[in-house]
Amino acid sequence: MFRHLLVFLLSVFTYDVSCITINLESAKAVRNVSVKFVGVTLDSGLIATKWRTFDLKSQKVLTLAKGLSPSYLRVGGASSDRIMFNKTHDQPGINLSVADWDNLNHLAMNAGMDLIYDFNVILRKNGQWDPTNARQLLEYTVKKGYKPAGYELGNEPNHRPQVKIISEKQLAKDFAAFKHVASSVGVPPFLTIGPDIGGVIMPYLEKFLEAGGGDVLDAVTMHHYYTNGQSATLKDFTDSKLLDSLIPEVQSFVKTCNQKAPGKQCWLGETSSCSHGGAQHISDRYVAGFLWLDKLGLSALHGLQAVIRQSFYGSYYGLIDTHLNPNPVS
Ligand SMILES: *[C@@H]1O[C@H](CO)[C@@H](O)[C@H](O)[C@H]1NC(C)=O
Ligand SMILES: *[C@@H]1O[C@H](CO)[C@@H](O)[C@H](O)[C@H]1NC(C)=O
Ligand SMILES: *[C@@H]1O[C@H](CO)[C@@H](O)[C@H](O)[C@H]1NC(C)=O
After folding, report:
1. Which N-terminal residues, if any, form the signal peptide (predicted)?
2. Per-residue pLDDT tens for 230-265?
3. 306-309 and 38-43: which strand pairing?
4. Residue 153, strand partner residues
5. Which ligand is nearest to the CA of 28?
6. Residue 25 annotated as catalytic
7. Beta 38-43 vs 71-76: how paired, if at all?
8. What is the DSSP string of 40-108?
9. Which domains can be identified in the chain, with CATH numbers?
């Protein structure tokens, strides 16, 4: 329905038409989606920058988060591959403190959101993923009775130079090792989600799923941005060609998932208007709603089960601003 409405609006923008008739067939649904179809992210870069002006314990943030629930709250991104839980001074990387982890879990639980956490895949030993630090976090999580809904391992493995050393086959093994560790620690049922493929998704995704990744995962994820926020213009946000560029990408993704990981869910695991933090003074405005609504409609239509919005807070595409007020302001 959004799409038809959008086509109508775009037509009005593009051509000088005075009258258009549109027929909305609202009585019959083309797809049913889960109540958790729309989720949000918090970029793990926020952990590196000590959350900036965000406050996990703020009543205002909790109230806004409640307005989005039930939904997934995914904490992940490029910085995930630098994070260590409860890091000591001689260990490299970014510190996810015990208090950070407590606060994240409390926010998610109090808001009725399902937390998803993205583990560092760059912690390695003899070519394999080293689960030592993840095990500490999982043991603590079980001890506290926290129940995140899902876990990921790494971010955009096909896209990040430092992770490129991990082959598709090795990453599939690493995911299997993660699942093994989680069950040995006694983690209650959870979703294994990944591989959070970014940019050009093939052939990495196909090879990863064929190498056993498809068996291990519950939800297969790709990331999607229409364009780079540093060069995006206002016009891009109502460009129907740009909007439609999502269609072949989602079709190819869903086809590969259905063939190589039958029965598993397919998600846009991290997605927004533009990459690199969004487009300044555009991604946070009313006009960005067109891209977003079209993305939700197309994603449902083409068979995705979840769309996770980058981001709940932070950068130009944040749903709430640095004063913790909801966007758009104009
Ligand atoms: C959506 O769910 C309703 C109610 O369960 C069902 O009648 C309908 O056939 C479903 N539609 C599709 C497209 O799956
Ligand atoms: C955090 O690290 C300290 C010192 O290394 C250790 O004593 C403590 O048990 C750790 N906490 C958790 C929750 O792992
Ligand atoms: C990381 O966080 C813990 C608290 O969980 C703290 O004790 C430790 O000093 C921090 N490490 C660094 C290197 O800042």
Report:
1. 1-19
2. 999 999 999 999 999 999 999 999 999 999 999 999
3. parallel
4. 119
5. 1
6. no
7. parallel
8. EEEETHHHHTTTTT--TT-HHHHHHHHHH-SEEEEEESGGGGGEEET--TTS-SEEE-HHHHHHHHHHH
9. 32-309 (3.20.20.80)
| Helix (H), strand (E) at residue 307 | strand 306-309
Four-CA torsion 230, 268, 185, 87, nearest 10 degrees: 0
Report which DSSP code applies to 328: P
State the distance from the centre of ligand 3 to the C-alpha of 88, rounded, in angstroms: 6
With a 6 A CB cut-off, is 91 part of the ligand 3 pocket? Answer: no
Asked whether 151 and 116 are in contact (CB, 8 A), the reply is: yes
Mean pLDDT across the chain:
93
Please provide the DSSP assignment of 211-279 as one string: IIIHHH-SEEEEEEEEEETTT--GGGGG-HHHHHTHHHHHHHHHHHHHHHSTT-EEEEEEEEEEETT--
Closest CA to 134 of 115, 153, 113, 155: 153
- Name the residue with the closest Cα to ligand 2, atom 3: 86
- Which residues touch 99 (CB under 8 Å, ≥6 apart)? none
* Ligand 1 proximity of 29 Cβ (cutoff 6 Å): yes
310-325 pLDDT, tens digit per residue, is 999 999 999 999 999 9
Prediction pTM value: 0.93
User: Cα(99) to centroid of ligand 3, in Å?
Assistant: 10
Annotate 154-210 with DSSP letters as a single string.
Answer: -S-TTT-GGGTTS-HHHHHHHHHHHHHHHHHHTPPS-EEEEEEE-SS-TTHHHHHII
Q: Assign residue 194 a region: left if phi > 0, alpha if psi is -120 to 50, beta otherwise?
A: left
pLDDT of residue 7: 43
Nearest to 38 by CA among 291, 276, 267, 284: 267
Instruction: Give yes or no: 168 in active site.
Output: no
Task: Output phi, psi for 162, to 5 deg.
Answer: -70, -20
Annotated catalytic residue, options 25, 139, 156, 249? 156
